[in-house]
Amino acid sequence: MIIELRRKHISMALAMALSSSVAALTPFAEAQASDRPAQIVALTKKAYQTEQRDVEEFKVSTNATVRLTYARLLARGRIVSDSNPLRAPDMNGAIEVYRGLVSTSDAEVRVKAIGELADLLQRKGGVENEQEATALRASIARPLAGASVQAAPAADTPVNIEEDLRNRMANGSLDAAFDLLLLQARENPTEVDTLRSQMLLMANLSALEGDGAVGRLAGRYAGSFDAQEHPEVLKSLLVLAAGDGSDSLVGVIEKNREALLAVLGQEQTREIVWQLVNGGSTRAAELIALDLVDENVFGFDEADAKWAIEALNGAGSYRANYVTAKLYYQGIYVDKDIDRAVSAMEKMLAGADAARQESLVIADRFARMNLSDSLVAKYVLPIYMGAWKAGDLSVVGRLARVIVSAEKGGFYATAADMPVPPDQLVAELSSAYTNGDLSAGMMLGDIYREGRLVAADPTMARTIYEDLRQQYADMPGMQLKLREQLAKLVRQDLEVTRAYAAYHAELRALAGERNLWAMRELGLLLAKGGPEIETDVEGGLNLLLEALSEGYFPAGPNAADIALASGSTDSLRRLSDVFKKFDPRTLSPESKVQLAEVDFALKQFDQAEYLLSDPDVQELPIGQFLLAQVMLSSGKLAPEIAAGKMKDVILAFTGQDGQLIEFIQQLARQDRLSTEFMEPVLERLAKIADKNDMLAINVAFRLRQTWPSSRSLSFNRVVDWSVYYAARGVSEPLARIATNVNEAAVGPEKYRYLVDKVEEVLPAVPNNGSLRMFLAEVYAQGVGRSRDLDRARQLVKEAAELGNLEALNAIASDFHNGRSVGMDRDRAEDLYRALAFVGSNSSALALARNYSKAPSSKVHETRAFAYYIKAAAGGSSSAMVEVGRNYLAGAGVGLDEAEGIAWLEKAADLGSVDAMTQLYFYYFVKNPTSKNDDAEVWLDKLVEANVPEMIIRKVVLLRDRDREGNKKEIFSLLDRAETLGSQFARRLENIYIREYRGGVSK
């Protein structure tokens, strides 16, 4: 029977307590950590069979003591199954048995039954149950009929504390035994060992009753100095209490965990928890299941946690269901399973008592699970609403918190969709705050500060926060939080008040007191700089990492942005190390993406892939996109497949435009993407740009250079976006198009469209000389408009008055050539010189060429070179070619072939055909053979640039090398040169055709 098993277990503990050994007491003494669950299952099978037999005897027994044991068993809970030691309480069954003992003739059993029944009714809750419990306690407070009553000492009779404790100890009080032990430790140390042994003996006898007294004694003893000196006694008490699987003992362990770990160590403390599980404690199983989440203080491993989860799944208590719901909802140790989590939540609700207080406990637990807004609306909100409608104003703050959170998340489309009208909810909060609910005040202050539910009212928010500071005067933690809220108010008004110094000082003070919000805020300011604060990127990153390391995950994205922007391997590794202090399974999907981005930057592809493969992360577009990039970089995806996956994310994306634009830019960086492949992607970009999104327009301008034939980024569309800019005073994009446009390349129709748009927007850009010079050229040449020299001259004049260098250079050229004005070359030269001084490359080139055409002299050559080098430094590729020539010839500067080649290469990089031609002949002259790799590099570039003469040179070179092997390429090149207008290419092609037909080789 159970009683016999308990006696056997306690006798073992007593033998242990009376010895000085601290060897293990539990049935798991020789088992390894990974064997614990298997050992428990084996022991459970035997205990379950014994319990089943006992229950059959209990049900039919009329013995009061046996019936009391039965009631306690039902209240404690029966073993779930022969493989699961956790116990499912039957409160209603226990109450029924207890009620049957209230009138028993066994006075001792009757008193115990009445007290335990009252406790059980109190736990169950409800008005009727609480009234019955009060009546029961009152009945045992009165002397029982026929019982002798010991007279109380007179008020003025001095009480002998030691004698009183000994009397109470003689009557079985464990608390008195412990108090006497502490008293004698101070006054009579020689008796302490005897008292300690007596206390342990009493604890063994008390444990037979299973009334929880030993657990309470263990809790008191754990914090005493005597426990530090005698850890074997502490362990014995804990083992005695653990045998019954007392959930309350788990609370003792959690409360005193630091002391227990210091006195007993992690391994022995863990053994006691396993003993509690073996005794049927669901709360001990919860502790095991959640230990890894709670910093792994007891040292349980993942295998232990998984076993505990499965055991809890089989238990019927709402606490067990809560742990199951939490772990499966958040995917801790197990695959995330929303259906299973919701099922456990349903069981919690179904098993909860109808009493409002119990329902609120469940709602509070649900609220701490970070449920989605829809699940909060389904499971949490109805309970809070029910309590509120029933008149419980204590829930107003919690109710408001749920509603505001859902409103922030966009769960309510309009105020009418909210379960409580915003004005009414704020009024209820105000009433609760007025009636002393300080948490409602904090919520109210936040609502007024953020402008949620009602219009923002910083003054009201400040008044509430200041009042709360007085109310919480003796609570440093709340003082710190309120200073944070007040600092947020200051930040909102900074642009008006300009109180930067005061704000920064408060931030530094708060950060110094480890306020995590302030650490993040100050870290950002230091990293990015701002008014009246010196930039300190390293110091800012350090603060962000400190906040993140303390679990403040909002600092994560900021730290990641700074570390990634810096490109510093050290910064990235430090950020990675901080993230890796947390169990990856406890990180939010967004935090996992941030860590994966860092791993990706560090080329830790396997780690990044592991994080990104999480199903929750793959629900995020950024997770899908980044995984494709990672697998591409690690070689696990071919470029075309990876690009396809990124493209799929872009086409399916429904989030913010900024994120979509970032995706498009990253995809655009991939090599060799065809216009056809990119077209639907560019169309998505174009649609954002059509909404006049300036970032999208800028990106579209840039990507059109890569895919100029894109239909989505058509010339007319780009012009329209540029006109939108220009109409708002930003005319540079339109000016760039106008300056670089080629009528032959875009076609007459599109060119006229551009001219029309420039004419249309010109009044809105009174300070843009470039657009006026564009139109001046249009009217001067009669391209896109009828020729109108007067209009052209007027536009040049307007541009010149605006200081446009091109216009002023044009006027100087008119004086130099006598065009539309009298020739005045001195005046022209003065204008050229003045314009060159302020940065006009055209004027510098004009001066250089004038000096080059002058009679040959060192003076003229030197002056020419000086202006060529000035224009070249200003970015003129034509000037760079001339500088290169001068260095190669030693004209106006010392002969320096290396410097000359360098300048020619700079010009060639800018697309200058003249520079490429110079470089080709430079190398060819040095080695005029068909085996000249240096020359051929530039010859190929000229062929690529479609220079007919150079294409023909390449043809001759290929024919000399291998007439038959290069036949196909030879004729292809000749066709291209002919298309480009080379008559000689046509004649040469005919000659080669005749030669190939006649087999003649020349």
Automatic annotation (TrEMBL):
Signal peptide extent: 1-24
Keywords, alphabetical: Signal
Top-level taxon of the source organism: Bacteria
InterPro entries on file: Sel1-like (IPR006597), Sel1_AlgK (IPR050767), TPR-like_helical_dom_sf (IPR011990)
Protein name: TPR repeat protein
Source organism of this protein record: Peteryoungia aggregata LMG 23059
